[in-house]
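Section 5.1 Outputs to date
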Amino acid sequence: MYSPYVHYPRFLLRGRLINNCRYGIHGMRREHFGMVVAERQRAGCLVFMPGLGGCAEIVDNPALAFADLDEAVERFDAVLTSETGGSAVRSHQDERAHQFTTNQFCAQLRDHVNAFLHEQLSEPPAKPTKGRPQST
């Protein structure tokens, strides 16, 4: 379908496409995580998406979430025509994007592994029981 408002250059690499866009629309409802949304957010895009599922948790901004097509249009219009040009929304997104850096992922993974190991090493091993297993 042709639209005079949307320009999608053919043969543009995905990374360049994401890095050159200021806005994104993610249409999958109730997506479990939403890696594409995290990538777009990390690249500086304001991502509009359905308000349910993992994407909404990643973006964490009701100004960018919608329940249906009419609400989506309202959300787009509110952000795009605001006097501040969506700078408050963009500032919030920049703060959220930090959670999805490679360094942040590695730090959180290390923290979880260290907590698990500390828990395993600090608890004495359970003694085997004879007969019926004990209920906890």
